[in-house]
Amino acid sequence: MRSTGARASCEDATPNKRDSRWLIKDTKRAMEHRDEVEALRAEVSALRAELAEARAARDRERCLAAGYRELFHGVPTAMILTDSAGRFVDMNEAFVALLGYTLDDLRGRSPDEISHPDDLPVERTLFASLARGTRPFVEFEKRYRRKDGTWMWARLFTGVVRNEQGEIIASYGSLKDAEEEFSTTVTSVRAVEARNRALLDAVPDLLFVMGRDTRFLDCKPARDVPLLVSPAQFLGRRLVDVFGTDWSRRQADIIRDVAEDGEPRMDRYSVETPDGPMHFEAMFSRSSTGEVVVAIRDVTKRVQAEAERDRLAREVSAQVNELRRWKALADRAPDGISIVGLDGELTYANAAFEDMLDRRPLVGTNVAHVLATAAEARSIDTALRAEGQYRGDLVLLRGDRTQIATQGVLFVMTNEDGTPASFGTIIRDRTEERRAEEERALLREQLIVAQQKLIEELETPILPVAPGVLVMPLVGRVDAARAERLLGSVLAGTTAHGARMVILDITGVPVVDAEVAEGLVRAARAVRLLGAETLLTGVGALVARELVAHAEEIAVLRPCSTLERAVSIALGMSRRGSGPKAS
Predict the structure, then answer these.
(1) Residue 470 and residue 280: Cα distance in Å, rounded?
(2) H or E stretch covering 385
(3) Which CATH architecture has domain 71-184?
(4) From 474's CA, which of 42, 50, 223, 572 has a CA 20 to 30 Å away?
């Protein structure tokens, strides 16, 4: 039973195994077919991309060809296109307008048919160089026959077009009307010549064209530079032969040197004229043709201006030096010196002024801040306006606000036209001067007092000649003041010496008036009150007459004929102790 069952199982398994093999083969075949499909699809995509690129390239080529055609037919220059055999293929409207032919007239024909026979050899030679590749293009002038049979000169610019193998597949050419171009060139040249002539005419210099042998070849006159001689006298002649001066010989050497080495040179010279010397500046340069162009400029006014400038510079230098000397003097002056602007600000102050006011710097300070009072400022302003200067004492303020007594001079400084420019000040410190004056005044007062005392002593001398006897000789005029001093001196001497007799000698008194007589009487009365007697000597006729008028008072004055007599009486009375008697 087991074997029968096993065989049945094997028989059942055989068909299934066969089906699986077929399935594997079908699967492999399907996968291979799919790979082929994918490859075909990729190939189709690549072909499509190539097709799109080819179409895009074709479109670009069409656009480029269209652009070239538009450019070819749109340019204003006559253009032609020929094939490899040299036959007309295309031409633009400018070519038709230039020669009169249409494309139908010339298509398939050679340009030689409308070219002048005499120009063909040269054209073929040049085109052969193009064919060999020795030249990229050629340009030359040739003649073309127009459709109306006339000939015209044209400038032909031509080249060739080659394929990738280097073979010529076409040629092109552009034509310009040479006659029109020549006319345009002539017009341009004439315009340039006109401009050059205008430029030359505008140049203020006198121009000469000189040969290497220093001969005058041409001349361009100038408006502002005179010709010393007429052109007929110098054209064609040598420079030295015309002028024969030192400067002409020097310039002849310069012309030869410039003609030789081409280096520009300059020279200055002067010419004497009836109106005075004229000064010129000459510039030498070599032209492209080898001649020497000489440009001469009249620099007389410039030389005169330079001379005037130098003169003014010397004057200014002298003035500056003088100002420096004055400034050095002002800087070192013992007095305060300053300059005040019209606005009242100090623009200069020397060291002495700064030391005087103990302020640094003073420059920039307003003068109103230096004056002690506004009244001084007003008085200075009034004097400056009325008289142009102020002289007097000034009280200034120092830096510590203390006052300083000064003496100043302020004056107006003017410009050349007389207008005020600034104010000058010279200030002197009077502090020491005033102190010295006060000392001198005190000494003078003391001297006066001493002199007065001496004079008083000399005017009223008291001479003790014996115990109790005093003599007072009087000399000179006696006025009321002296009479008072006489009285005081007599009383003082009588008291000091204990005198009993006082002798007044008036021999030296020239005039005795009532006032003098009264003074003598008063002195005698005062002496009597002190217990002493008074004797009067030296009485002349005029004095006696004046004293007689005072007879009542003269009793106190006991006269004596002479001083010796009076001294003798006084001595006798002194010994006796009694009063004197008249003698």
Answers:
(1) 113
(2) helix 374-387
(3) 2-Layer Sandwich (3.30)
(4) 572
